[in-house]
Amino acid sequence: MRFIRKPMANINDVVLQFPCPLRKDSFDKTSKGYYCNKCSSEVIDFSGKSLNELRCEMGKSQKPVCGIFKKSQLSDQFIKYAAATFFLSSALTFQSIAQEKAKIDSDSTSKANVDGETEPVFFGLIVETQAEPEGGIPKFIKTLSEEIKCPISLKEKGKCFVEMLIDTSGHAHSFKIVKSLNKDADQEAVRALTKLNYPWTPAKQRGKSLTSRFIMPIAFDPDKRRNDVKK
User: Fold this and answer.
1) Which residue has the higher pLDDT, 87 or 216?
2) How far is residue 143's CA from residue 220's CA, in Å, rounded to a whole number?
């Protein structure tokens, strides 16, 4: 009897906590992939691995697994999140959520060659479900927009990016500016987020809640003297 070996299932629909701002060349090479000295953790290169190999690594690990993935291996949920919450200092920047097309910075982008074509590569911790504000992003954006006031000192429109931690109880805290626009605008963004104290549904891994990071871009338009928080 002849047995036909079934092809290994491909990795898809992976969700990461956040797009890591580090570049591949900042990691030390190991047998499994790379080692991140900043996080003191192994970064496994899953860009060419199967779904079974991913499940095996996650099954034997006692903590969230950090990996390298091609864009095609990631979920639409994460791609939309990454499009809205990019780091200007990271490997990728995005033109808009609607287009969901990556604009590649040739000087800093990590790339993978897939069937002769260049494909963006992402780094980050794998989670089952990302943290999300209760009621959804649109409701959170509307509530935050009503709280924020555009500083008088701001003369040109732009965005600042605020990083926050979402703990296991769904509390957002430890707000930090990761991309500045203007001192007063930065302070106003952090003030509004702190005062709002908006409830979140925490990220989950293996059915358990865990602390995760979230990056929120906040757009200021002095011509309108109000803010629009962009998704």
Assistant:
1) 216
2) 15
Measured CA to CA, the distance from residue 215 to residue 74 in angstroms comes to: 18
Q: Choose among 219, 215, 231: nearest CA to 148.
A: 219
Top pLDDT among 106 and 185 is at 185
Torsion of CA 31, 108, 97, 231, to 10 degrees: 90
Q: Which residues pair with 133 in a beta bridge?
A: 200
The pLDDT confidence band at residue 118, using thresholds 50, 70 and 90, is low
pLDDT band at 130 (very low <50, low <70, confident <90, very high): confident
CATH architecture of 132-228: 2-Layer Sandwich (3.30)
For residues 4 and 201, the model is more confident at 201
Where exactly are the structural domains of the chain? 15-127, 132-228
Collapsed DSSP state (helix, strand, coil) of residue 56: helix
What is the model's pTM? 0.63
Q: Which residue type is seen at 106?
A: S
Residue 194 Rama label (left phi>0; alpha psi -120 to 50; beta): alpha
Burial environment of residue 230 by CB neighbours within 10 A (0 to 12, 13 to 18, 19 or more): middle
CA dihedral 165, 39, 178, 147 (to 10 degrees): 0
Contact (CB, 8 A) for 177 and 190: yes
